[in-house]
Write a structure and sequence with these properties.
mainly alpha, 63% helix, single chain, 2 strands, 181 residues
């Protein structure tokens, strides 16, 4: 079971890192700091809000690709081979990094769309959706490469929220996030 958990986390790692990365790159690429929703509204409420930006998507996908590239570079180490769920060729590694990065951010954006429409402000808790939105995106996009097993999905759904909460606390401690939850 531990091997399944580690394999699932390793496979999903590009998307998980991509999901975290926009917080770390807030001052970068200022021309791309424009809202993805372009200010559009449904029934008077913004689709996503100002905090979901092209910069976040671009840097998140780049982070995912870099994570995939790292997986490619270290693929021949015995310990990595023992946890690898796929064969990390160069093209597949970059593709997974890009796709999982986009998937995680798309899942997060879909949840933000729902939050805005039900009147929850950005940064306010929307439990359990805040903790699993990016995971749902990664799981869905895994079907483009090698679908995760139900055991891997269960591991991500159980452990992903704990990681999300831990990194949220770390972000607050490092003064990257304003919200403590």
């Amino acid at each position: 079971m531990l091997l399944t958990i580690i394999s699932a986390l390793y496979y999903a790692m590009p998307g998980m890192l991509a999901n975290m990365s926009p917080l770390f790159f807030k001052g970068w690429l200022k021309p791309l700091a424009k809202p993805v929703d372009l200010g559009l509204k449904i029934k008077g409420k913004r689709l996503l809000g100002d905090h979901k930006t092209f910069r976040g998507f671009v840097l998140g996908m780049i982070t995912g690709m870099l994570a995939g590239f790292l997986q490619y570079i270290i693929r021949d180490f015995a310990i990595i081979q023992s946890i690898s769920y796929i064969d990390y060729t160069f093209v597949k590694s970059i593709g997974i990094g890009l796709a999982f990065g986009f998937a995680a951010l798309l899942g997060d954006s879909a949840k933000s769309l729902v939050k805005r429409q039900v009147g929850i402000r950005p940064g306010k808790p929307f439990i359990p959706f805040d903790q699993v939105d990016y995971i749902v995106g990664i799981i869905a996009f895994s079907y483009l490469f090698r679908p995760m097993t139900w055991q891997m999905i269960a591991a991500l759904v159980l452990i992903g929220p704990l990681l999300h909460l831990a990194f949220t606390k770390l972000g607050y401690f490092l003064k990257i996030r304003k919200e403590r939850w």
